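Internal ticket #5521
Category: modeling
Description: The requester needs a full-assembly model to guide mutagenesis choices. All entity lines are attached below as received. Residue total reported by intake: 597.
Assigned to: D.W.
Attached entities:
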Amino acid sequence: MTNKKRGLIYDFRTNWKSYIFVLPVVLGVLIFSVYPIVSSLFYSFTDYNIAYPPYNFGLQNYIKAFTTDWAKLGKSIGITLLYTVISVPVNMLLSFGLALLLDRAAKGVGVFRVLFYTPVIIPGIVVSLLWVDIIDPVYGIANAILQGLGLPKSNFIYDPSTALATVIVIGFWNIGANMILWLSALKNVSAELKEAARLDGAGAFKTLLSVTIPMCTPTIFYILVTSSIAALQTFGVYFMTGGGGTDDSLLFFGVKIYLEAFRSTRFGYACALSWIMFVIVGLVSCALFKSNRWVYYED
Amino acid sequence: MRTDSAAQTAPLRKKSKYGPARIVKWIVYYAAIAVLLCIFLLPFMTMLSKSFMTYTEVRELPVRFWARVMQFSNYAVAFQAKYLRMLLNTLIVVAMNMLGATLMSAFSAFGFTRMKFKLKKPLFVLIMSTLMLPTMITQIPTYILFANLHMLDSLFPLFISTFFGGGVLNIFLVMQFMRGIPKDIDNAAVIDGAGPFRIFFSIALPLCKPVLLYIAITVFTGCWNDIQGPLIYLNSAGVEKYTLSLGFYFDFGAGGQFELYKNWQMALGVLMTIPPAVVFFIFQRQLLDGVVMTGVKG
């Protein structure tokens, strides 16, 4: 109690050992989080290419984003939002369906779960280049299979009209990640509630709709928020296209920022773009959190 | 989906365990899973089968699905000095990150759970708030910071930050774990005259082995698979500085010197997949439980 009245200096002197334990992480946060945020905000109001110190302080980067560069940036934002709006819900539905299929005591279920999860753990760059090979318009097996099924060939990511759809479908290869979260949510749905619904004469589908899904809403909300934020920051496509794709059809916002910073060394502009992205991510998260009345919390 | 609801209603109507309707339902169930698995594993099969083909076979039309003769020589490509050097670089980054993440996250977590000091609350809030921060924002200024420190084109930027705290999420995980360890154990040590550092290294650290193992595994796969970090920090470095993932991308990605040599690409890809896959299969229980744990708490 007396310690409370004495100042910080006293605390530093008596509890210096405690401060040594937290010193590394506090320094880490200051150097690798606080300083970057502050300097990023500063750079975003300057022209900066690393070779010379930042110069030309003003709003020019933000003005450029919404005027001269808007044609490209607007398209980039559009692609990113469209990707998020389509891929996140469909991915959630597919992974939920897969989890339902694997949420039972059947022989081999454990092995199936692991197999469906495997795409998640292998190196992303191997996956990207593997898909580039599969969807190769000439030598890829995707077109060979399409032809075998009597369907027309496609240019996949190289054709602006199919590029985004291809990337979305390829993304479904990773539904194992969400499947694991669904499985744990399903395991926690009370068996008594399901039994009660069954005794009331509810069929499997009715039970799913009125017991299982409401009980899973916290997981639905969690996956919705985290995968939306992740989807808005998509960058992996860059390794398939090496840029923005044909006619910028795959110029995701994350790719745009990367290209501005590390290809064109316009670091000031790239920082401004990352703040615009931050605002978009923030708005989307806020909207999701505002609308979370449908989430059922047990306690 | 259809098979699923059918299988669930089955016990309502038929009580017998081996009725013909039930057997049909199980067959449908396994057939559905088998079809899904085939689609899912098709990319892996492609990778594996192409890794055994000759160069002419991967560029043959109509597209070949299997090699005429298995060419194990593609795998020899991976054992060139160049790739072995990249493997060494990758292992250095992986090892440093594993060391930093486990040791430092436990160290910081010990401070926050076991030590007394005035600024505990505000510092903890400050640290946890960085979890919300998108990497988008910090990535460019951090690059500039390393550029100003003349550390670009070296492996340092890929692991130095880990030694400053070991990762906020990891700290959080260790804290959860440490809260479960009874304080009596360290009180006994205090009575024996041990200081906090002694208690940390000889009591707390060994007790945290399970959670540190989980952190070590995730850091291993995370760093082994990382491509974005190397791409940014080693972009203009010489080949001898690359990590495997970056070398793989530069050699076999668009415009790479071996872009067309899909047989080599797939062989190297298979080899690069093996370490994380082996680690995953060995520790799948810890990993999957951990994913759920971080998912629910984080």
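Resolution: model delivered.
Comment from assignee: The two ends of chain A are 35 Å apart (CA to CA).
Ticket closed.
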